[in-house]
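Why do we care about 3D structure at all? Because function follows from shape, and shape follows, mostly, from sequence. That is the central idea of this module. The next example makes it concrete: a single protein chain, its amino acid sequence, and then its structure expressed as tokens.
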Amino acid sequence: MKQTDEQLHQLRTNIVRLYGNGKSIRTVADEVSRSYGYVRKILVDARVTLRPRGGHRKVAPAQK
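And the structure:
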């Protein structure tokens, strides 16, 4: 089933919003039932700044 332009626009908007809210590309892909590559391409095309790989890292407390 081919998606309409409006449906594609809504999907792209949703992808950018989910990623902007802190979800990973992989999580966004799972939520919208698309591949990692598709979601990444949408984000790159939308000129979204991608976060570094590896997720959140805990910073060790400063030693005295």
